[in-house]
Amino acid sequence: MSRDLAxxxxxxxxxxxxxxxxxxxxxCEKGATIVISDISEENAKxxxxxxxxxxxxAIYVVADVSKYDQAENxxxxxxxxxxxxxxxxxxxxxxKDSMMHKMSVDAWNAVxxxxxxxxxxxxxxxxxxxxxxxxxxIINISSASYLNGNIGQxxxxxxKAGVVALTKTCAKENGKKNITCNAIVxxxxxxxxxxxxxEKAWDIMVSKISMGRAGTPEDIGNMIAxxxxxxxxxxxxxxxxxxxxxxx
Length: 248
Ligand code: NAP
Hints:
Blueprint: E1 9-13, H1 18-29, E2 33-38, H2 41-53, E3 58-62, H3 68-82, E4 87-90, H4 105-133, E5 136-141, H5 145-148, H6 154-174, E6 179-186, H7 192-195, H8 199-207, H9 217-227, E7 239-242
The structure holds NADP nicotinamide-adenine-dinucleotide phosphate (NAP).
């Protein structure tokens, strides 16, 4: 695999485990120095150990992305410790599912806070350093629910739709500064977030996937490694499904 990200510093939020860790590993394989960021210090340390296991370089910064001061500290610490920020992947996300008529305001606010405001917070903190250097690659993780909504996920679907609008706005505002911004729509990916579903529901989900299997965090990482590469320097404002042909 080419190491064309060798000079690049990449921040991945929610990368102590799950899709975020898969993304971090793929960027590391391409040579990037990784900032593992997670709300849990234990998971963040575990993420760094995984990167070191494959011969990569990583530091960690604990941050709850829903809090602006912590998001800003993440970006500023990255610049202070590693000298720059080239790649920002907004992956951190939570779900608190229930039908809207039963959804608590707390569940609404928590999911919007992490999945939408969290994306704004890190982008807001990183965008000026990127504009000054006239280089940036931003990837935001949305979800298939962004387009048509999803039963039991009013908060999650609304946040993920907002992520797409935020992505496209960022792309429009910053293209002339050589900053690309794209969104990824993962399909059904095997992580702790999905492992909680009952076996029957799992099988139904997999039956809707052309490739006949759930995706892996590395499947998402492969796409992102391409989107932040030089070969993808003219690709911005995009929304890309990585779902093995999943039809909902
Ligand atoms: P996951 O296994 O639950 O991992 C989520 C990660 O985000 C964890 O490391 C978690 O930290 C971290 N996190 C949670 N709240 C945070 C906060 N406030 N600040 C910073 N980090 C926080 O989920 P996943 O399946 O890997 O999902 C990753 C992203 O993909 C999410 O945005 C999700 O919505 C999206 N997605 C997933 C699927 C799927 O099929 N899995 C499909 C579509 C979209 P802790 O470990 O400390 O909890």
